[in-house]
Design brief:
The chain is an alpha/beta fold. Helices cover 38% and strands 14% of the residues. The chain contains 4 helices and 5 strands; from the N terminus they run αβαβββαβα. A hairpin with a 5-residue loop joins β3 and β4. α2 runs parallel beside α3 and α3 runs parallel beside α4. It is elongated and about 50 Å long. It starts with a helix and ends with a helix.
Length: 147
């Protein structure tokens, strides 16, 4: 990571380098802090983005590609916690969302179950958070940003 930072931004120009983490809920809290510390200690200014969607994709027994809302939120929480611990700045979050009433991701305020995926599963590629799940997530991220 440090070699990439040096090659891509040797003059250490702030805002030039954005790194997107895709670690998954099981790895974020232990794997990210030393990476953040290394970048910070090297003086490399990095804009950090969390992508909690891709590393948390699962396939149901019926063969549907989906994601658990709780895993997405837990990865975001781990991302913010790692930055707080290392004194670095969480620059953003990448999400796949829709304002539509789809049923592509499990959980959230409506507690969408695996059986409920069949109601309005419309994605051709990556499962998206529906409107309600997106709002739930936005309010939770706003709370994390206040800490």
């Amino acid at each position: 990571m440090l070699e990439l930072c040096e090659r891509l931004n040797p003059e250490k120009i702030p805002g030039r380098l954005t790194l997107i983490t895709r670690m998954g809920v099981g790895l974020i809290e232990h794997t990210l802090p030393p990476i953040l510390a290394a970048a910070r200690d090297s003086g490399s200014p990095v804009v950090w983005i969390c992508d909690p969607m891709h590393a948390n994709t699962i396939t149901t027994e019926s063969g549907r590609k989906t994601r658990r809302f709780s895993d997405i939120m837990a990865e975001i929480e781990g991302f913010f916690a790692a930055h707080a611990a290392e004194g670095t700045w969480p620059g953003g979050v990448h999400l796949e969302i829709t304002g539509g009433d789809v049923t592509e991701c499990l959980g959230g305020g409506e507690q969408l179950s695996e059986a409920g995926l069949e109601e309005a599963y419309q994605t051709l590629c990556d499962p998206r958070l529906n409107a309600r799940q997106s709002l739930d997530l936005a309010f939770h991220v706003a709370e994390l940003m206040r800490r």
